Amino acid sequence: MSKNTRIVLIFGGFVTAVAAALYPIVIHPMMNIDDYRLKVWSDPFSRK
């Protein structure tokens, strides 16, 4: 294997690992906003 191919594979693996780690943190919540929407709480003391 040539030196350039090895560097490209290592760099590509690093980029893939970073993308796999960021997917559940950044991309999934942005694509599924309804799952992460905050619910409005009712007042536990029933103030009016």
TrEMBL record:
InterPro entries: MITRAC7/Phoenixin. The chain crosses the membrane at residues 7-27. Pfam families: MITRAC7_Phoenixin. GO terms for cellular component: mitochondrial inner membrane. The keyword Metal-binding does not apply. One of its GO terms (biological process) is mitochondrial respiratory chain complex IV assembly. Keywords: Membrane, Transmembrane, Transmembrane helix. This is Small integral membrane protein 20. It comes from Hymenochirus boettgeri (Congo dwarf clawed frog).
